[in-house]
Amino acid sequence: MEPSFSKEQKAEIVSSIRRYFAENLERDLSEMEAGFLLEYFMSEIAPFAYNRGVEDAQKYFIGVTEDLPGTCFVEPLTHWKTQKGAGRGVSRKPGR
Questions:
Q1: Cβ distance 60 to 54 under 8 Å?
Q2: Which residue, 24, 31, 37, 41, is the most exposed by fewest CB within 10 angstroms?
Q3: What are the extents of the domains in the chain?
Q4: What's this model's pTM, rounded to 2 decimal places?
């Protein structure tokens, strides 16, 4: 699944690629050259990062769902544990 960029995003990325080449490799790229380089990176290299992101998300969700009862369990019948006089074992007969 190859991500798509808006025109504005692509222009910013191409500008960044051009700047990187100029400042670090002392090579001026045209917009077209930087655009071709971006397309190459997106088709050849980006899938590695994308797949890693999917794997990381899968591991996270597997970890969370494996302990779902521990994460989401709610103790039932806790009313008497939190009331005053709890644990006295007082039993009242009906009508008293």
A1: no
A2: 24
A3: 7-73
A4: 0.62
